[in-house]
Amino acid sequence: MEHVNELLFDSAQFTHAKFIDGVMIMEERVCLEVYETIYEDFFPIIMAGDHSTAYGTIAGIKKAYPKQRLGVIWIDAHADMHTPYTTPSGNMHGMTLAMACDIDNLECKANDPRGETLEYWEQLKNVGMPGAKIYPEDIVYISVRDLEKPENYLINKYGMGYITAEEVRKQGPIKAAQDALKMLDHCDLIYISFDVDSIDSRVSSGTGTPVPNGLTLEEAKTLNVELAKDPKVCAWEIAEVNPTLDTENRMAEGAFEILEATARAIKNRLVTVEK
Fold first, then answer.
1. What distance in Å separates the CA atoms of residue 138 and residue 142, rounded to the nearest whole number?
2. Is the distance from CB of 96 to CB of 80 less than 8 angstroms?
3. Closest CA to 108 of 156, 155, 151
4. Complete edge-to-edge strand list for the sheet that includes strand 161-163
5. What is the enclosing helix (H) or strand (E) of 46?
6. Collapsing DSSP states into helix, strand and coil, what is residue 237?
7. Can you tell me whether residue 263 is helix, strand or coil?
């Protein structure tokens, strides 16, 4: 498949939505791949780089199941609910769930994006199928601890599910997984997106935006394995491993351990269903 790496050298063109032209291409590609994987009756396990492509995953699931209500469990240090109107950084990986919910959050407007930025933004929100793919109240956050005010506003406005890393540690990852699934028991399907920066920064140095006071590797592994056992879970994703930032490769090794354990849980579940 043809790459679009040349777009990485032109970030200044879209101040409030960096590389949005390249992100647009990747969202369409990921959407189609996920859709085709489901259509061919396989379970999508996605290994992603920049977490912005998780929107393509959501769009692909929704394209495959247009009439099903999709819940999202977002295991991440960040809420990723900014828009070009609210972002302090312009990073598209901080806008993933706003794209999926078709939200602009003009109530918290701080920027004045114009022209091509807004054209791409509107196109992005229609990848896979027109309009919102999920309801914001069908999102459950786990281990989010680095929030800006516009994101906090939306979390409170829509009553999104929220389980802190401290709560995971206090009650245990199995109970946290059960609580998260219970919050989405009204949904037909559930997608899990696991960003490795949900893990404490002492371990997750091999990622772009590490944050302290996160999950341990063992907590993250148990949490993902327990979630993956649920029959409503239709796709699982791991994102934001960047070995170039981790000379000891600890993050990649830890992420692979979590990936392996979760994939095994998914396989065991599907084999049991087939029997």
1. 13
2. yes
3. 151
4. 45-48, 233-239, 189-195, 70-75, 139-142, 161-163
5. strand 45-48
6. strand
7. helix
Q: What is the CATH number of domain 16-274?
A: 3.40.800.10
| Both structure tokens of 25 | 């291409």
Encode the chain (275 residues) as per-residue pLDDT tens digits.
667 666 666 656 799 999 999 999 999 999 999 999 999 999 999 999 999 999 999 999 999 999 999 999 999 999 999 999 999 999 999 999 999 999 999 999 999 999 999 999 999 999 999 999 999 999 999 999 999 999 999 999 999 999 999 999 999 999 999 999 999 999 999 999 999 999 999 888 888 888 999 999 999 999 999 999 999 999 999 999 988 888 788 889 999 999 999 999 999 998 876 65
C-alpha to C-alpha distance for 208 and 206, rounded to whole angstroms: 7
Locus of tokens 């000891």: 248
Is the Cβ–Cβ distance between 15 and 57 less than 8 Å? no
- Looking up tokens 């078709």 gives 102
Tokens of 114: 């114009």
Q: With beta carbons less than 8 A apart as the criterion, state whether 42 and 12 touch.
A: no
The DSSP letter of residue 186 is: T
Distance CA 204, CA 199 (A): 6
154 neighbors 105 (Cβ within 8 angstroms) = yes
SS3 123: helix
Answer for the pair 265, 220: CB distance below 8 angstroms, yes or no.
no
Amino acid at site 196: V
